[in-house]
Design goal:
heterodimer; A: 295 residues; alpha/beta; Protocatechuate 4,5-dioxygenase, Chain B; B: 461 residues; 7-stranded mixed sheet; 6-stranded mixed sheet
């Protein structure tokens, strides 16, 4: 789980980002540092990401050209995020996931317009996870037909996409890092401090959202992801959660609902929303499988 | 000359009429309607087009595009296969900044955005491309705050109107929006397009029937109901009607003309023209607040004061009544020179501290100070000082939710009655001849700062 607040990139001051910061949101930036250290030990070929900020209302879309290079300016926080990106796409794997989902009856489309601007959620999560930008990426849109269907139906569609993603990756023979680019509770402040990185102004919007976030984190730590899936609709509603974008359900399904403990690298708030950097390591998955077989 | 809104319109946000009008008869008709609307804007004499776009959602207050020349290529998130939308247009930065200032004066959180590459939204791009292909007009674009309720949207519209009047320009206001906004969730062939459901179609036609009769305020009053019936939840609601009615004075005094109504991937797209007229359909009945200043308690950052108005409420200790008093400070007026607020609300009245002629922010005195640092008298322009003095009064009044029109009593202090009274009186009459508050004029020896005039005002709400 790799949330995408542009504030974290702003606070990190990478060369690609025009605005510069003094500091800020260290608990989450350090969480990303810990996850990056773990990922440096892992061997993977491609990043597969689902971002809630490429919102499509007609099915699920996939970036379908080898490279996208442009400037991303955040529409809400342009004062913080104006980022020059250069992103390579694993078109082969994108199409494989597209085809798997299509064969499963899902509404899907490849995005092949070279002028398309990659959404800032994808860029932020990818940058914070792999700032070297040396891995190709598969970018999946967030199907917002949740505005038409019930949360339960949309969740099942996200799970279906997760299964298609998993099958395609297995068929490709590639080792993939999956990123669900979403926060947990998602009620923003509607004002911003004069100095954006003024941490005296940063806290969760309300206590009940914090309680929901802690409940979900505790369940992830206990490997209770099927239980999370069960309560996801209520969580989405009660915590105004960004899980409505489908990424959380998608990743749990693609991982076949991990029963092993997730590593919670850290939790913090960004302009009032709750964010956690969480890892489900492949090694733990393999160990869990061995334990299950009794080897 | 006072600026005015000469025309208002509703236009759809989907890119189909711009990119592929030939693929569906209805998309072509919408394209023709855009062309007709463009000509009507030209005929109206409008110099600037203001766009309120529902496809520019926002969470931090209200954003106004202030890049003088936005230039980029837009691609729609869903309909990327239809093609790219390059844009290159001119922003009316004077009007935009005036609007921003008016927003702050009316208590709204507001900011201007001037960054190269800022992503102009699809609704604005389609509007600008089809209504202003040759950059004949300048443009001002405002976001649509997803949390804003009716009162906040109404105040935004009044701030817009303040800026338009101040600009002296003729302005056309466009709402880039769908009627029903439920699209098909599957890909369809162009010839398969139709309104998503019969119910949506019926509601759309009812909306258009009322608009055609110029009953904009009536539609605004139905906004919540319309949203619940035919609008996708979580997509910025049917609030553009609040905005559009607000800039038109919340009346039904309009002439409506439906230029086209067609389906756009299931959503309802219409081009509707509304022009001001007298004695049109009906009057209005509404029991909600007609807010002048936004004072909703939406700030959750304790200790952060980012609005143009700070209000502290205190309970009077002078008697046992429950009458509250509130000290009011306006960030748009010159800072007080002592331990006093700009104004204090008591019951239904607003008492202002003495207001002078210093310029907000800079403290400069228009027309020059009346004395130098050594107390030597200087020549000064009493007319310029009087204008600034009354403008400052206006700022404080509007920050507090009142207005110049609601002034009841004025005490005038002049440092040189013989020299200044006639000129002062002439400027004064420009503002107050129709308002007619009671007035007392006094000659005094000096004021605390080197100004020549000060006003003490009592107003109602």
């Amino acid at each position: 789980m790799a949330p995408h607040p542009p504030h974290l990139v702003y606070a990190d001051n990478p060369v690609q980002n025009e605005p510069k910061s003094e500091c800020g949101w260290e608990s989450l930036r350090w969480a990303y540092e810990r996850m990056r250290a773990n990922l440096d030990e892992a061997d993977y070929d491609v990043i597969v990401i689902l971002s809630p900020h490429w919102q499509t209302y007609v099915g699920t879309h996939f970036l379908g050209l080898p490279n996208f290079k442009s400037k991303s300016v955040d529409p809400i926080f342009p004062n913080l995020f104006r980022f020059d990106y250069d992103i390579d796409i694993d078109v082969e794997l994108s199409r494989m996931i597209h085809d798997e989902a299509q064969a499963d009856g899902m509404v899907v489309k490849m995005m092949e317009n070279p002028d398309f601007r990659v959404d800032y959620g994808t860029i932020v999560s990818c940058h914070l996870t792999r700032p070297q930008w040396d891995k190709p990426v598969v970018c999946i849109s967030s199907n917002r037909a949740n505005a038409y269907y019930s949360v339960e139906v949309m969740q099942e569609m996200a799970a279906q996409l997760g299964r298609a993603t998993s099958r395609a990756i297995e068929k490709s023979g590639k080792r993939a890092l999956l990123l669900a680019s979403n926060s947990l509770s998602h009620r923003h402040f509607i004002t911003e401090p004069e100095i954006p990185e003024d941490m005296s102004a940063e806290h969760i919007t309300s206590h009940h959202l914090y309680l929901w976030d802690m409940k979900l984190i505790e369940m992830m730590k206990q490997g209770k992801t099927k239980e999370i899936f069960d309560i996801m609709p209520e969580f989405t509603e009660q915590a105004v959660s960004e899980s409505d974008g489908g990424g959380f359900s998608w990743i749990l399904s693609a991982l076949d609902f991990p029963t092993y403990p997730a590593i919670v690298h850290g939790y913090g708030t960004i302009i009032g929303t709750g964010n956690a950097v969480v890892e489900w390591p492949a090694e733990a998955a393999a160990n869990a499988e061995v334990a299950l077989r009794g080897d | 000359m006072t600026g005015e809104i000469v025309l208002s319109a509703i236009v759809p946000v989907h890119p189909h009429p711009l990119l592929v009008p030939e693929k569906n008869e209805g998309w072509g008709l919408l394209r023709q309607a855009f062309t007709t609307l463009r000509q009507r804007i030209i005929d109206s004499g409008a110099e600037t087009i203001i766009i309120y776009s529902t496809t520019w959602p926002n969470i931090i207050g209200h954003q106004l595009l202030a890049d003088p020349n936005p230039k980029w290529t837009f691609v729609d998130a869903d309909f990327h296969d239809l093609g790219s939308l390059p844009y290159d247009f001119q922003v009316d930065t004077n009007l935009t900044h005036a609007w921003h200032n008016a927003n702050e004066r009316r208590g709204l959180s507001s900011r201007t955005v001037n960054y190269h590459g800022f992503p102009v939204d699809v609704g604005s791009v389609v509007s600008v491309s089809l209504l202003n292909p040759d950059n004949r007009f300048k443009v001002a674009i405002v976001s649509s705050n997803i949390y804003a309720n009716r009162s906040e949207t109404l105040v935004l519209s009044k701030a817009c109107l303040d800026a338009v009047k101040e600009s002296g320009k003729k302005v056309a206001v466009i709402c880039a929006m769908s009627l029903s906004n439920r699209m098909f969730t599957e890909f369809i062939e162009p010839n398969e397009d139709r309104i998503h459901s019969l119910k949506d179609d019926e509601w759309n036609r009812k909306i258009l029937e009322l608009l055609e009769k110029g009953r904009l305020e009536d539609i605004a009053q139905l906004s919540r109901q319309i949203h619940s019936q035919i609008r996708v939840q979580k997509v910025v609601s049917f609030k553009p009607m609040w905005f559009l009615s607000g800039v038109n004075g919340q009346t039904n005094n309009l002439k409506g003309e439906v230029l086209a109504y067609e389906a756009l991937h299931g959503a309802g797209g219409a081009v509707v023209l509304l022009t001001p007229t007298e004695n049109s359909a009906g009057d209005k009945e509404y029991d909600e607040d007609d807010a002048e200043v936004f004072s909703g308690d939406r700030s959750v950052l304790e200790g952060i004061e980012d609005r143009g108005v700070t209000t502290t409420t205190a309970t009077s200790n002078e008697d046992d009544s429950n009458k509250d008093t509130a000290a009011i400070n306006s960030q748009s007026a010159p800072k007080p020179v002592g331990a006093y607020p700009h104004a204090r609300k008591v019951g239904d009245l607003l008492y202002l501290s003495g207001v002078g002629s210093r310029t907000p922010d800079t403290d400069e005195i228009p027309g020059g100070p009346c004395r130098d640092e050594n107390g030597i008298s200087l020549d000064y322009d009493i007319a310029a000082q009087t204008h600034m003095c009354i403008e400052n009064v206006k700022r404080v009044l509007e920050s507090a939710g009142s207005s110049l029109e609601k002034v009841q009593d004025i005490t005038v202090f002049l440092i040189d009655m013989d020299r200044d009274f006639a000129t002062f009186n002439q400027v004064y009459s420009e503002y107050f001849v129709d308002i007619k508050p009671t007035r007392t004029t006094l000659a005094i020896n000096a004021l605390p700062t080197p100004i020549a005039v000060e006003l003490k005002v009592i107003a109602s709400f």
